[in-house]
Each structure stands twice: as structure tokens, then as C-alpha cells.
Amino acid sequence: MRLTGPMRAVAVLLMVGLVWLLVNNFFGGESVHVLSFLGGSSEQPTPGEPRPRKYKCGLSAPCPPKHLAFRLVSGAANVIAPKVCLEDQMIMSSVKNNVGRGLNIALVNGVTGDLLEARTFDMWAGDVTELLKFLRPLHEGTLVFVASFDDAATKMNDESRRLFEELGSTAVKELAFRDSWVFVGAKGIENKSPFEQRMKNSKNSNKYEGWPESLEMDGCIPLRPPLDH
């Protein structure tokens, strides 16, 4: 039997209503846009309104030539892992399975921008000797990207703090239990690094129970000219 115009409209409305009920029940009562679920769009962009453009690593503006775009995100509490993005490539993340509790460090060639090594150091139950062996032999011009996760300070000793200070850190001397920390330094830097943030662990201001909020930092780092031989 073929449906007439009014009957067909009623049938379409009944079908949409049934789909909404099924989708709503499937997603546990969460609000779901039926048009989006059916392949349509429930929101149309305003005509003539440009969408904000994102550049490498989500920066709001492009980096100048011979600069590296980066974004560092520290871990959130002991749940959400940190991220390190360089030149639009995620070089450290939970997806890459190369991050962990403590300090997450990526070494980058300061002339070419190539990733040299990425490692994590457990600063709660690990051995600080491993961190010292990693930092001591760095070559001149090596860029060092650091993002904390959970606790980055318990196993810190005087030498490890001094090594980070030599890379340009000013916050590491005060870094304490469960502080959030993101930092970019370089071997042989003459001044203190402009790329560093620290959020103190304080029960009066913590965003999470027992932990401060996650830190996010991005920017552009100039590449070094090749060293003369």
C-alpha cells in the first residue's frame, strides 16, 4: 500500500521519534543530536564567520622560519598522561606508550630539529642515577623538553637540580612533591629559559584532590646555526 502525502509525513515523524528513543536509550540518556547521528548537521556555521585557524601543534600563529613549534602538557593528577608535540608531531604521549610517572624528557637536535631520544624517569620509586646518566653527557645545543606526571621531585637530588639549572631552569630548585612542571631548556644556554612553568602542589589551591592543575605551554624555539668545525 502506498502512503499519501500526510500519511508519509506522519510515518517519517514516527521513524525519527523512534530513532531518537533508541539512540537516547543506547547512550544512557545523554543528550544526542538526532540529525548528527543520522548524518546531518545540527549546527551550521554562521555565513561569513571564519573558523580560527590552527597551526603546528595547535598554535594560534605560525612560527617564523627556522623555528620549531612545540606544545607541552603536563600530566593531570596521576590519571591523564602528559604530551609533548614538536613540529605537529606527537613525540611523547600515552598513545605512543612512551610516558610515565615522574619526568618525561625528549632530547632534540638544536640544529636540525630531529628527535634524538625520549625517555621517562620515575621520580617516586625510581633511581635518580638513571636521570643523571641521561643528562650529564648532553651535547652543546641539545634541546631538552620536560613534562611532569604525578610526582617529579621526590627522587631529585642536588646534582639533578643543578643539571636542570644549567639547562636554563629557574623553577627546579623549588620543585617539590607533586608539583606540575613543564620546561624547555638547552645545553649551553647563556641565559635562563623563557619556556618554563611550575604549579605548586597546595591543598588550598589544588584543582584535583592531592594534585595541582595540569600545565600547558607552547611556543616557537629558534634553531641554532651549525657549529663551526
TrEMBL record:
Predominant cellular place of this UniProt entry's protein: secreted
Protein name as catalogued: FAM3 metabolism regulating signaling molecule A
Family: Belongs to the FAM3 family.
Protein source organism: Oryzias latipes (Japanese rice fish)
CDD domains named in the record: ILEI_FAM3C
Gene it is expressed from: FAM3A
Residues annotated as domain ILEI/PANDER: 101-188
Top-level lineage group: Eukaryota
Pfam families: ILEI (PF15711)
